[in-house]
Amino acid sequence: MTDTNLGRILEKLKKETLKKILNTIEQKPEKEKEDMIDQIVDFGFDKGVKDFVKALDTKYIIKGLEETIKNIDKKEKREKLKDKFFDKIEQDGLEEFLKKMKIETLNIYVKSLKFQTNADTIEELSKDINDEVIYIGSRFILSKISIDLLNEISISLKLKKLKKKLNLIDSILKTEFKGIESIEEEEDSEDDDDDEDEEEEEDAYEEEKEIDNDEKKMNTITTTSSSSTSSSTGSDVKENKYFGKTREEMKKIRPKLEVGISKADIQDCYWADELKEFCKENGLGMKGSKPDNIRKIMNHFEKKRKQSSSSSLNTSNKKKKK
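and the corresponding structure tokens:
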């Protein structure tokens, strides 16, 4: 996850600074720096996704689901439709989920998020929407941080110290996110609006503590922002028994994550956070998108298969010698 815009900013910070950020957003810091970066990126991505789905009219949630899942009940309540939308993001990763949609739907999503892009392909639009979601979450995290801590971050990034909170946030984000407008010049005068800026941006954080149950579902979503070489027209959805299943339903029918499982079954049956956890437990590293982790897992299983074959062959040869 350190290959995201936010991840690259956090990599340049000291471990103690990362701990302060996690304490600010009420997350218990992990021991390793890489894990702390993942915690912050995940938190920001979750927030960005929630805001993204909030911005969508119900009919556009349905439209996205119709293009990626079969048998959608349009009469279901918004909360249940959002759950299914969240579930697919959690399973596929946002960018890969979006790549399965039509270009017209993605352009609607761009308008809903109110940002501009020159992208004109499904792949480019999917990546830009994913990046915008990460930007939204990153800005939210920085808005919770004190001016002193923001300046501490600025020093680590070798940026100029500033007095206004919004200018500090823009300065930090500008190092990795494109398209942020130039920061307004600050005078030496102490007469600024820091307190008002903080109050306005902190209101959202209090509202975050009162999120609806449907939004709490997103607490475990993991981010994926690296591009994939695969493409999709968004019009052809695979016909198989796994589409449209919830996580609990999927656990009952999916094949085990072990030697012999196909790449397609891993993609269709396992969520991004499950694959990340498997990679962590098996020493395969925690970085990467869902496609990256699938590739690592398949390579891991192939090595185990070869080792098993080699061991069986050696045992057979020993028996023949006897």
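(Above: one complete record from the training split.) Residues 290-321 form the longest helix (32 residues).
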